[in-house]
Design brief:
It contains 16 helices and 12 strands. The N and C termini lie far apart (55 Å).
């Protein structure tokens, strides 16, 4: 029945499990362990737990399971495993499936912590990593090999908003039997259907749009039931990266308004991007659905709308960017995104500061680049705030 529901209905009702009390709001089962009626029942549950049988919160919990089932229904995945953070989802999905000697091809334009997982952690344990220009399909074709175990990419890169042709990359990867792992945060589960486009595994930082109100860390890995239960679950439950029941409850509450918030935020981002395009103090405005975006045609094919984030490159470099940031009255300086509150970030000195100057230049992260995550405030107020701050540059 759930498969027949539309998005907003799934976001409110999928995965609901009511206790004997018949509560309206989902219950928080804030417990780390569970009681057995007998030693025999404990033995049996450790041998094979049933659908509504739990052992330990690191392995599973009723509130967490509600969240997993709800987001799996939204994404169209067979199953999901909730994690303590978005980076726990990225590292868990990759590390669970890889071993020394495996080869991974990844897009080069990634969040700094994702690059660290690939280049420092996985490489340290004997996984060979090849980084490519994610927008260049020929580069993907040249990089994959018969021993390529996985490809990894951000469907929209952070913070320069490159859009990768997921459908074509998936065909290239599947041609050599590689698993396609996609970080789909910027595209959001509202505007993108990564699994339908060829992804095998999708990860989200649920801290972003899914909570979307600046409260809790969280992440999730989505894929086939076999991958989630036989590959991801054993790794995450033994290494301790599971989501807490309280955070899962917050995510459930966030999902009820996810579609409404993302649509409002996207409308605001679209309006602001169009208004800023061509502004005299900006070297460029980057937004996937602007006609001058380098991957505009791909973005139209991959996403129903352009998303909630835009980036602007302020002429005058870091000093001008800092003057802009410090002059804002409504938008707040922070390093999160996908929040109900509008947030601005200077990637070169924050989220991507660990990269060398040469790496940042290769990725297009200039000293003047500012990432704007548009919230649910009135778009005209936000635009006035931005234009006023640009006057101070």
């Amino acid at each position: 029945m759930t498969k027949d529901w539309n998005t907003r209905t799934k976001l409110v009702h999928s995965g609901t499990r009511r206790s004997q009390y018949g509560e309206v709001s989902e219950a928080i089962f804030l417990t780390q362990g569970f009681v057995y009626d007998s030693a025999e029942q404990a033995e049996q549950r450790f041998l094979k737990s049933g659908e509504d049988e739990f052992i330990y919160a690191r392995y599973g919990n009723p509130t967490v399971r509600m969240f997993e089932e709800r987001i799996a229904a939204l994404e169209g995945a067979e199953d999901a495993f909730a994690t303590a953070s978005g980076m726990a989802a990225v590292s868990g999905a990759l590390t669970a499936m890889l071993k020394a000697g495996d080869h991974v091809v990844s897009s080069r334009a990634l969040f700094g912590s994702c690059l660290y997982i690939l280049e420092d952690v996985l490489a340290r344990f004997g996984v060979e990593i090849t980084l490519v220009d994610g927008t260049d399909l020929d580069a993907w074709r040249a990089a994959v090999r018969p021993d390529t175990r996985a490809v990894f990419l951000e469907s929209i890169s952070n913070p320069t908003l490159e859009v990768i042709d997921l459908e074509e990359v998936a065909k290239i990867a599947h041609g050599v039997g590689a698993t396609v792992v996609v970080d789909n945060v910027f595209a959001t589960p509202i505007w993108s259907r990564a699994l339908e486009l060829g992804a095998d595994v999708v990860v989200y930082s649920t801290t972003k749009h899914i909570d979307g109100q600046g409260r809790c860390l969280g992440g999730v890995i989505l894929g086939t039931r076999e991958f989630i239960r036989k590959t991801v679950e054993p790794y995450v439950k033994h290494t301790g990266g599971a989501m807490s029941p309280f955070n899962a409850w917050v995510m459930l509450k966030g999902m009820e308004t996810l579609d409404l918030r993302v649509r409002a935020m996207t409308d605001g981002a679209t309006k602001i991007a169009a208004a800023l395009d061509g502004h005299g103090k900006l070297a460029r405005v980057i937004f996937p659905h602007l006609p001058d975006h380098p991957q505009h045609d791909v973005a139209l094919r991959m996403m129903e709308k352009g998303g909630t984030v835009l980036s602007i490159d302020i002429a005058g470099g870091q000093a001008a960017a800092f003057r802009f940031l410090n002059a804002l009255k409504i938008m707040t300086i922070s390093n999160n995104l996908g929040d109900a509150k509008s947030i601005v970030t200077h990637p070169a000195t924050t989220t991507h500061q660990r990269l060398s100057e040469e790496q940042r230049a290769t990725l297009g992260i200039t000293p003047g680049l500012v990432r704007l995550s548009v919230g649910i405030e009135d778009a005209d107020d936000l635009l006035a705030d931005i234009l006023g701050a640009l006057d101070a540059v």
